Amino acid sequence: MAKLKHEIRDPIHGFIKVLQDERKILDSKPIQRLRDIHQLGLTYLLYPSATHKRFEHSLGVMELATRVYDVITSPDNILPKLKKELAELEDPDKLRYWRRVIRMAALCHDIGHLPFSHAVEKEVFPKGWDHERMTAKIIEDCLSELFMELTPPVRAKDVIKIALGPEKISKIYPEIEFSPWETILSEIIVGDCFGVDRMDYLLRDSYHIGVAYGKFDHFRLIDTLRILPERDTNEPNLGIEIGGIHVAESLLLARYFMYSQVYFHHVRRAYDYHLKDYLKIWLKEKCSSEFFPTKANDFLNYSDSVIMSDIQRSARESSVTDHKVAQRIINRKHYKLIYELNPQDVEENPDALRVIYKSLAEKYGENKIIIDEYEEKGGILDFLVIDRNKQIFRAREISKLLIKLPRVSVGFIFADREIIEEAKQWLEENKSDILKRQEVVEDE
Length: 444
Description:
Blueprint: E1 5-10, E2 14-19, H1 23-26, H2 29-32, H3 54-72, H4 82-85, H5 92-108, H6 121-124, H7 131-147, H8 156-172, H9 180-190, H10 196-209, H11 218-223, E3 225-229, E4 236-241, H12 245-263, H13 266-286, H14 296-299, H15 304-316, H16 323-330, E5 336-340, H17 343-348, H18 352-364, E6 369-375, E7 384-386, E8 392-394, H19 395-398, H20 400-404, E9 409-415, H21 420-434
């Protein structure tokens, strides 16, 4: 007799349970391909143990999404007034259906990722495409029939909606609308505050890299999550009990530290640029195109090992066009940091990064100098909180930390190793005069 439930051991969540009919999805090509997509791209060249893949992350997101769903739909955790706003909470069949939808949406939320994940997405997808749109395409073309074999059968459209959320869906399928219930379920996966995608990658990345500042008490956080009504409109949203406010703060702090110390580490960013340069050449030679294909079955043929095999070959063959850039990756000869933006320089010249970049590029050539800048957009992250007297507040009203939490901002300039020492000395001697210039280098 076949097992009704399978258990997969995971270093973050213990055992992840997969039902027998869900194995059809788990064993499919779109999901199994994630075994060959590094979660953090080439970060393992900097942090040697960061070799984990999108496959285990997707399993972890499915596990956490299921736990959150079970907590917020538990009868003991539902405010009476919400039963009128969310009819699904009173319908066992609908609850069972949407539980399966959110599991499949969580499992499939990353299947549209390019090789090496986020590293080069903007440059090697055609205009209007990103990994979310590719995810929707793969679900439609490759998994919709398998979803109908589940018990109960699941509509691919519902999986896509919950996996991507209203903001992304509006750009791909502007005609699709979200009910309040569907909006909440998508927030469980992709939400800025309590999305389980973020929870899992912070916990998993910090574990594999070997740093402590990505950790937080996710058990406590999940246990205190609730569906709460807005004070003025009664619109339901994902919020938290007052007892979980500090662990919610620790989650957002963990995110800030991981982005500052890991995801935007300057060496990691340098490798991303070299990988982008390599793939631009590689795509023209291998695919006769500037972009990866967007036909689902063709796209699924590309993974990290396919690309890395060619990078290694190019690094060995000095006659090929992409030999030099391949060597920078394989031999770890990345461009080195020559300048990092700092508050003192910004005070002297708000355009310090770009003015210095322009001066270095004019002196040594644009092919020898790289600029990398990023500033996180958006305002204060906010969410609903219910206190012990059943009063509802905004988190910003009771958390000073959220108001003061800084946004991630970096500014780097890298230089070719052939000129790095000379360029460093030149910049040191001329930086004071350079910062007095006021011209702004416009975006291309």
